[in-house]
Amino acid sequence: MAKVEIHHDFRQAFESIAEQFPEFENRLIADFTRFVDSDRMEYPDYFGRDSIYNWPHEAQREALSHIHIALPPRAFQAGSALQYRTNPRNPEQDACLVYCEHAVIKGRFLLLDFFYPGAHKKAQEERRMRYLAKQAAKFHDDW
Of 116, 118, 140, 141, which one is least surrounded by beta carbons within 10 A? Predict the structure, then answer.
């Protein structure tokens, strides 16, 4: 079973969402664990595209990844493929979970941040992305 750890930046970023949807954080963590345990084959209707960041270079090098998330009570269209489940044109609905898998210990994950609202815009903030890549590097070095 996957081991999912929570970075303090994730908790901080998730505070406003937790106020609106008190049980959502636990549900998200449980569903993420199930998702990675199933080799990314089983996912809830509120999970969207799962992909690695390719910019900046440090983020790609540290395998910084993200999953698009539809916040409650929304869900992505039933039957739609994960790759089409995003909200780039609707910043108020645009959310994603930022995470990485340990470079050496497979099945060990770190939830780093939660981009909302305007996840696509936040992912273009170079300083923020470099910081998250640095946090991922520290996680990879911890073994």
Answer: 141
